[in-house]
Amino acid sequence: MSTQPLTFSELISGNQPVLVDFFATWCGPCQMMQPILEDTARQLGEKIKIVKVDVDKNPLAASKFQVRGVPTLILFQKGQILWRQSGVVPAHQLVNTIEGYLTEKV
């Protein structure tokens, strides 16, 4: 039995919260977010999935979610936007914000 990779819509519609990083390769602040996202992933583990979306390669996704600047972070769960912010977010603030949404659901 082979499993097909999930589409973006399927991914953000699941029960597991998904943090989407809308970024661009030419964007300096986006590059600053990379180690912050890695740190966030280490701290939160399996509680969350982190996905990166290159706005230059995926303009329709960026347009659909009205991403006007990069980096823009959007937290989805069950297809709903729980939180969004543009710009660099410090790791402790990002983890605290996400954990706030995780504990609300319990």
From TrEMBL:
Annotated site (Deprotonates C-terminal active site Cys): D21
Organism ancestry: Bacteria, Pseudomonadati, Bacteroidota, Cytophagia, Cytophagales
SUPFAM superfamilies, per database record: Thioredoxin-like
Family the entry assigns: Belongs to the thioredoxin family.
Molecular function as annotated in GO: protein-disulfide reductase activity
Species this protein is from: Cecembia rubra
GO biological-process terms attached to the record: cell redox homeostasis
Annotated active site: C27, C30
InterPro entries reported for this sequence: Thioredoxin (IPR005746), Thioredoxin-like_sf (IPR036249), Thioredoxin_CS (IPR017937), Thioredoxin_domain (IPR013766)
Site positions (Contributes to redox potential value): G28, P29
Protein name: Thioredoxin
Thioredoxin domain sequence ranges: 1-103
